[in-house]
Amino acid sequence: MTKTRNLYLIPYAAWMLLFVATPIVLIVYNSFFDVEGNFTLDNFQKFLTPVYLRMTFNSFWYALLITVFSLLVAYPTAYWLTRTKHKQLWLLLIIVPSWINLLLKTYAFIGLFGTYGFVNAIFEWVGIGTQQILFTDFSFVFVSVYIFIPFMILPIYNALEELNPSLIYAARDLGASPWKTFRRVVFPLTLGGVKAGCQAVFIPALSLFMITRLIAGNRVVTLGTAIEQHFLVTQDWGMGSAIAVLLIIVMAVIMMLTGNRGARNSIR
Amino acid sequence: MTDKTIIRFDNVTQRYDRDTVLDNVSFEIERGKFYTLLGPSGCGKTTILRLIAGFIEPSEGHIYFKGKVINDVPADKRQVNTVFQDYALFPHLNVFENVAFGLRIKKLKNAVVTEKVKEALRFVNLNGYEDREISEMSGGQRQRVAIARAIVNEPEILLLDEPLSALDLKLRTEMQYELRELQRRLGITFIFVTHDQEEALAMSDEIFVLNKGEIQQSGTPTDIYDEPINRFVADFIGESNIVPGRMISDFLAEFAGKSFECVDQGFSPNEPVEIMIRPEDLEITTQEQGNLLIKVDSQLFRGVHYEISGYDEAGNEWLVHSTKKAVVGESIGLRFDPEAIHVMRFGETEEEFDRRLEAYSDHEDEAVGGGQGGGSTR
Amino acid sequence: MKKNSKLAQLYLVVVFLVLYAPILYLMYYSFNSAGTMHGFDGFTLEWYEEVFHDTRLLIIVLNTVVIALLSSAISTIVGVTGALAIQRVRKSRPRNSLLAMNNVLIVSPDVIIGASFLIFFTMIGIKLGFTSVLLSHIAFSIPIVVLMVLPKLQEMSPTLIDAAKDLGASGWGVLTKVVLPFLRPGIFTGFFMALTYSLDDFAVTFFVTGNGYSTLSVEIYSRARQGISPSINALSTLIFLFTITLVVGYYFLNRRGSRKPEWGVTQP
């Protein structure tokens, strides 16, 4: 046993060292250097200026909005899904869109939300008149929620499926109304799924940059956009790394608070 | 004796981290017999099995197979096969391929494999099931596949790790007969692990009773049932009444405030002992005729008998199995023969115990001329 | 359990309509001769023709597929050994830290993975392009494979291995004849998930792709930034059909493997 154990561990450990440990170390290391390659703490100081603090606040605010709306839509969906006849098929139908390249889905919204797009056509028809939908906070949140919804539905669905149905009967038997049963029994017992779902949505939502660019048209600047900007446009890797390091710290804190289940891990 | 010995444990100790699961165990196992390792969970019985199979190596001591030390021979090189508690059938293979697994490893020719597998399946009454998936088999059938998979390799010893525990009562009883029959037909050594004393008594040639990593007693089922060495064995095998007592002199024991004639000897005068009487050896009679008086406390109908429980004047509880009914609350007399009284010495080792019993049978041979079978096989 | 009310059914239908609307919208306008995502002029297959004549796009599609297949194959091999390695670590502390390390890339936002890999590749002197993209995809797919294989491995009764040894199998025989066949469904799921993650990835690739090498997501992004491009619509229709085929194939694979299908989802 002992001999083979080491053998299995070699490729895996090598991968861990190269692609997990080293990049983290490098990004932390880089955050202490400015554009000219001098050691400095400026990057972190710059982060404390209103521009970046505002950006951080924005990121959290939008991530929170996206998470809350996703949860509000996803919970009832998951709940009613578990009570449909062909559960597996419905679930499959929920998942299929998530397998379409998200760039394509985002791209579709450029058409849907455009000045002459489908949504505005409907607005015209009901008499509201053409609105500017694209490049607004609304479109950003809506598209993000659209993208993230399956990741919220699945863990909740799984939690609901694991729930022993006799618990519901027991609650009803003990005199709880359907609503009370839901509030006192079903919801608390599926809280694990809700947490996992929130984690799976909140963390990626913090660092979105593709949707902000395509849908929000640079109106919304999040930490993700800033990192991308610093790395690929202004080439200020130090500042980009500093933001990334702070984001990592925040992420770690969130993971610890919500329990250490991996976000994507729980979506199966 | 040494000739027939196939497995010998010589002062084997097994430790996991700091827990000692087997403590200096020595015993011998002979060819062609049905052995049972009996004991509560955690007594070390499965550890012995795993040591024989070669899944673990002993921390101390030696294990001999046909006189050769096999401590570090790996499991795949031993002529021993196991039937696992959960059967451990390979879910990705069908019945045929499961049974053929060991033969394929040995790279036997296809025709030979087919023939041997068919024969093994016939042996366990599963012919015609070759192409079934394991998931399509019932618990009892899986059990047979597991047995077929083990015996097809023609092992010299078949190890069975609580193989019947997952079956329902009726099937279990049926399989007890079948396993016993199978062992006779194959003529190889079976080592059967169980915590079910009825199973052990019904099937075995020899039983090893284990507790806390030590062998408490070994012997034929009747030996162990009739002459348990100590309170643990008496309690674990069958039901028993155990009360504190005293050996006044040879053939005279005192308990429950009275003295009784018995057949035990070889104790120091007034030595404190434990007295054991089996519930079925107690007979209900009138108060006048009984050797002992008890007040009936409760009564349950068990089908073949009534189980009556009551207390004597000294406060000892007595359990009686009787076909006669008693009335709760009434006092009844209990009658028993001197042979029914079994005296257990505190802290006696198995060797001392055997020597004492042998002395009885010598005595019995002289006095009675024949006597009971107790302890004469060793 | 009680059946859903009319309201619940309506809700589910609306959710599904919204989920599928953008995809159907894209597909519908891929046949629009006007080349826009509004005002359907007439039916045409012109855009499909354009896709098949666009050599650059076809090469990019090929790149994407090659990267996906290669990276998921390699990550499956490393991931399976990783799972076997983790399974053999019996003590809970090193085991948990291995699992935590494994989850780092899964919970990290893509932007951070991309940025740190960019630093990493630049530092060790790997030219950005095919190699860097392939290595990154392998890197983020390995933990997914591990997570898909590990539960299956834990499900495997240890007596199965004992049984194989008992029947004469050596270490290698136990692995190839018992362990790997038993893990097959998990390995398939892992491979498949790795494939979809790779096909779907945008952010990480965007960071490490460099000039002159592109995958589909990156290409769609750059085209979409310039506005509506009907060939993307045509392409997305093709991708959708391809995805559906994959899903159906996977569904039946899973059906055969186990009675209860597990659905994998990819994360943006």
Task: Describe, in plain words, how this protein is organized in 3D.
The complex is a heterotrimer of chains A (268), B (378) and C (268). Chain A is mostly helical and 268 residues long. Chain A contains 13 helices and no strands. The N terminus and C terminus of chain A are likely disordered. Chain B is 27% helix and 32% strand. Chain B contains 9 helices and 20 strands. In chain B, helix 2 crosses helix 3, helix 2 packs parallel to helix 4 and helix 3 packs across helix 4. Chain B is globular. The C terminus of chain B is likely disordered. Chain C starts with 5 loop residues before the first helix and ends in an 11-residue tail after the last helix. Chain C contains 11 helices and no strands. Chains in contact: A-C, B-C. The interface between A and C is large, with 96 and 93 residues.
Strand and helix map with partners:
The complex is a heterotrimer of chains A (268), B (378) and C (268).
Chain A: H1 2-30, H2 42-47, H3 50-81, H4 87-95, H5 102-113, H6 118-126, H7 137-162, H8 165-173, H9 178-189, H10 191-206, H11 210-214, H12 223-233, H13 237-257
Chain B: E1 5-16, E2 19-30, E3 34-38, H1 45-53, E4 60-65, E5 68-69, E6 80-83, H2 95-105, H3 110-123, H4 139-151, E7 157-161, H5 169-186, E8 189-194, H6 197-203, E9 206-211, E10 214-219, H7 221-226, H8 231-236, E11 241-249, E12 252-255, E13 258-261, E14 271-277, E15 283-285, E16 292-301, E17 306-311, E18 317-322, E19 331-335, E20 342-344, H9 350-367
Parallel strand pairs in B: 3-8, 3-9, 6-7, 7-8
Antiparallel strand pairs in B: 1-2, 1-4, 4-5, 9-10, 11-12, 11-14, 12-13, 14-20, 15-19, 16-17, 16-19, 17-18
Chain C: H1 6-29, H2 46-53, H3 55-88, H4 92-107, H5 110-124, H6 130-155, H7 158-166, H8 171-200, H9 203-208, H10 216-225, H11 230-257
